[in-house]
Amino acid sequence: MDVKQSIRSELEVLAEGEYGKFSKGLIPGKDNIIGIRLPILRELAKGYAKGEWESLLEDKDVYFEETMLRGMILGYAIKEPQKLVPYIEAFIPLVDNWSVCDSVFMGMSTWQKDREFTWNYIQKYLYAHKEFEVRVALIIMMQHLLKCDEKGKKIPRLRCVDMVHLTDCNEIPGLYLKRVLDSLDRTFEQGYYASMAASWLLAECFCCFPYHTLEFLKQNKMDKVTYNKGIQKIIESKIPTEEVKDYLRTLKR
Fold first, then answer.
1. How many other CB atoms sit within 10 Å of the CB of residue 82?
2. Is the separation of the CB atoms in 132 and 95 below 8 Å?
3. 250 burial level (CB within 10 Å; 0-12, 13-18, 19+)
4. In angstroms, what is the C-alpha Rg of the chain?
5. How far apart are CA 43 and CA 167, in angstroms?
6. Is residue 210 a contact partner of residue 165, using CB atoms and an 8 Å limit?
7. DSSP code of 157?
8. pLDDT digits (tens, 9 = 90+) for 27-50
9. d(CA 8, CA 122)
10. DSSP character for 166?
11. Exposed, middle or buried by CB within 10 Å (0-12, 13-18, 19+), for 17?
12. Residues 125-135 as b or e (16 or more Cβ within 10 Å = b)
């Protein structure tokens, strides 16, 4: 039995049928899901990343979970973003659903090792015409660039956003906030999952930097669907007060 088949057999043993059915309901069009929970896949990926992991990438995947595992292994095995590039170039064409996109790229902290390189690299995907290429770039931006100060230290979400925050012109923006907001200042017509990632990113901007994000909300070129969904995501968050949520509702188009 070759290595790839050995891994596939291990996945089949770990599969949970009922969880697989549940997952299929969340990820339209993916009928090859066998049902393995993310924490288990992450632990497997960490283990495989310590060995001869490149041989695991040679053959095509049969199961959804194999593709997820493939991406996770890259995140654990490769420690420099420059070295990630050729593998990411081969992996991105396999990303055809939100689950693989978000689970793999949100956990790929290697991108934080050289954020300026990462920013420059994702530009071609950020402005691509394919739905999930755009989503990949937006997820990397949200998870690994947005919440970063000038010294590279992580900036957490605010615990609460009240009306005072909306008038705090002395708010210190993250290192990449302006660039992130500039990249959102356009229409997102590549598809539903690109649009939803853009609205999610907008909501994250607000929960970290409400003053600067509000200025953006007041005047931008976002399409109506993405813009309104972004405001809705902010309103659904527990971070803004009810007064802030009521105000944001007045900004909907």
1. 13
2. yes
3. exposed
4. 19
5. 45
6. yes
7. P
8. 988 999 999 999 999 999 999 999
9. 32
10. G
11. exposed
12. bbebebbbbbb
The answer to whether the CB of 74 falls within 8 A of the CB of 87 is yes
Other residues' Cβ atoms within 10 Å of the Cβ of residue 230: 29
Say whether pLDDT at 1 is over 60: no
Residue 230's alpha-carbon distances to 120, 153, 177, 208, in angstroms, are 25, 26, 16, 14
Q: Please, where are the H alpha helices in the chain?
A: 3-14, 17-26, 38-49, 64-77, 81-91, 98-106, 115-126, 131-144, 177-184, 192-208, 210-218, 224-236, 242-249
DSSP 158: P
Structure tokens at 79: 């420690």
Q: Among candidates 64, 127, 76, which has minimal Cα distance to 101? A: 64
Gap between the Cα atoms of 72 and 76, Å rounded: 6
DSSP 185: S
Q: What's the pTM value of the predicted model, to 2 decimals? A: 0.94
Distance CA 64, CA 100 (A): 8
Question: What span, in angstroms and rounded, lies between the C-alpha atoms of 38 and 45?
Answer: 10
Q: Which residues of 163-198 are buried (b: 16+ CB within 10 A; e: fewer)?
A: eebbeeeebebbbbbeebbebbeeebebeebbbbbb
Tell me what pLDDT residue 120 has.
98
The amino acid at residue 45 is: A
Residue with tokens 């790839």: 4
pLDDT given at position 4? 80
CB 191 within 8 A of CB 221: no
